[in-house]
Amino acid sequence: MIPASFDYHRPKSTPEALAILGQYGDDARVVAGGHSLIPMMKLRMAQPSHLVDLRSIPELKGIRIDGTTIVIGAMTTQAELLGSAQLTAAVPILHEAALQIADPQVRYMGTLGGNVANGDPGNDMPAVMQCLDASYRVTGKTGSRSIKARAFYKSAYVTALNSGEIVTAIEIPVPPGKHGYSYDKLKRKIGDYATAAAAVMMTVSGGKVQTCAIALTNLGPTPIYCAQASAAIVGSGLDTAAITAAAGAAGALMAPSPDGRGTVQFRTSVGGVMIGRALQRAYQRATA
Amino acid sequence: MAKSAIKLKINGAEVEALVEPRTLLVHFLREQQMLTGTHIGCETSHCGVCTVDLNGMSVKSCTIFAIQADGADVITIEGMANADGTLHALQEGFRQMHGLQCGFCTPGMILRAHRLLKENPNPTEAEIRMGIAGNLCRCTGYQNIVKAIQHAAAKLGGREYLEAAE
Question: Which pick of A101, A181, B45, B145 has the fewest CB atoms within 10 Å?
Fold first, then answer.
């Protein structure tokens, strides 16, 4: 499988990358880790005339904690996320989710920015970012703006990113020191996308849930943030009735496609199971 | 199509070559450098037989362009044996523990195990299995591959390999 011909660009700075995108418009595509785009190019489902490789732009790398916000450069790889003890201590759900992405080789190359910006409904980090209420820092020729993960995804592979813009960083509000979290993913095999997956963040006080956020992976054309389901948990002691109510409210938002991973009914059902497991594990961790 | 000049290190030797931007690293290694020890399996970044070591990372060479490896340090199976021709501890481990049958996955397994042991010189069985999760073998059932890697870890660490009781 050999991709169509293209010209290769490896800019050294974000302005240089933006200038190349400005020059070639929709004939150009940026490549981060390449583990979504290069397979698509090999299948000739993507045939960019210009490939703009972001790997040599130092300002797109790195993890720093800025007071109440964690800023992760878009080109930070999944392996680098896994290797950051500071990040894992502050936001352990990132470590748990990253470990469930693909396999070691892919995690050395795959980046957080690519994972969230591509708009593939199978990618795991978008739902995690919605759960964390993260924002994406986006830069274009007219300047920089921030887009909430919960408002970023429009449809499969369609996002709020405009032509000529690049996601440069992911900004995550530092969660409370004592919180519960879980990313529960059912997949057929290592390396597969989720049949269904659920991300949960939670705080608990006196046995009662104070805050809760639930988001889902691969149960529709976009990641799904479940506001109503999250609200159904708040105030409860995570009893069966609350979990059932949350799974029911979330189920109404699910629209998975029938594919090799199962029928719509099966995948929706698994979605409910993942929500239940993630809620229970998050609660246990929050109260441990 | 215009070709671009790239310069990289392959198994310790400086290499300069002209590549089309669309040339995948695995095709460059096999067809331009004649290093056919790196295999092509699924070509969709699932099977891991094309795994090479690039700048201290295990990568699937079917999913990176040769031009992206410009300036990189690449190790392939051809670079694993010792300078005097004796086998690397991993090669020795695969031989001693029958870590291969048809051998097709072996170069990728060894390159992946090489990086795994660099990062974690004394892995548990579970860590080995997670560490080679991106490499498929259709012959062995993995049992002897795990033992081969344990054998190599022991040898590299100066310990005697003691096979766990069944």
Answer: A101
